[in-house]
Amino acid sequence: MSGKRWLALGIAALLLAVSIGFQFVTNMASANFENMFGGSNDGIEEEIMQEGQPQEKIAVIDIEGVIQDTGNTPSFMNQSMYNHRQFMKMLESAGENPNINGIILRVNTPGGGVVESAEIHDKVKEIQEENGKPVYVSMGNTAASGGYYVAAPADKIVAHPATVTGSIGVIMQSVNYAELADELGIEFTTIKSGPFKDIMSGNREMTEEEEDILQSLVDDFYSDFVNVIANGRGMSEEEVREIGDGRVYSGKQAEELDLVDELGSLEDTITLMEEDQGLNNPQVVRYHGAFALNQFLGTSARSLIVNDAELLGIKELLMESETPRAMYLYTD
């Protein structure tokens, strides 16, 4: 190899090293080092929202983004969004903390997985019944489908007049790319142990029998959804089914249908809990997951290799498209 080529390779390597170093320094500069190295022992931190008596606290815990379990850390496509395991840990911690007198869930989600939504619902019921603590819900921009499922058992639900809620129902979807594959000359070979092993496969049309099987699952999950609302809101099953046809409602409409108790903001919900529970100048804290250094370094390394995070999620998206997964999810 000539000297000029070696020189060009050296310059290219130097530029790459400078680029990587610049991105790493930028990520480090934007990180919160106090949270990174000084997190709480249980991995949960409290941000004081309102000064008051620390022996008499209200904990605010956010449900932000699609409710789905993506593992110990968020996936490439939603690193800054909802982390189910972390949320469940925060909810359990607030329930067991003797200084927490009440919990407010700030719900801003279009819903998500059936299992994850049920886990939150069950934990809320456990906190109410075993820990004897009130749980209120403050709805944000969206608290639909699974977002309403997790809110249903709350002692009080407060929505903004413009909140999008409702969307009571279950959905299963897949991507069918059979025609596209034919046009591209792509053939699929499937070896399966039973006739329904590749149900919902995207490389062929679904049969009527397969559709009936999946519809029966959706109907079962929907019945559970109806029961959760009926029990949580003191409504009959018939009343819930009448309004639970999948449509969305504004916060104002939801109040008229008795799906929410009052209209207001997060601050109004805090005041309401103070008054209802007889709390005298409580300290209000917002729960956060403590920042983990290994998570930071992992995220930084990935961002150095691939700038567009969406590219890293393509494989994950394609794999999920063929997974028969029922969702309590509002899609617009």
From TrEMBL:
GO terms for biological process: proteolysis. The keyword Hydrolase applies. It comes from the Bacteria. Pfam families: Peptidase_S49. SUPFAM superfamilies: ClpP/crotonase (SSF52096). InterPro entries: ClpP/crotonase-like_dom_sf (IPR029045), Pept_S49_SppA (IPR004635), Peptidase_S49 (IPR002142), S49_SppA_C (IPR047272). The keyword Calcium does not apply. Keywords: Hydrolase, Protease, Serine protease. Residues 129-279 form the Peptidase S49 domain. CDD domains: S49_Sppa_N_C. Belongs to the peptidase S49 family. This is Protease-4.
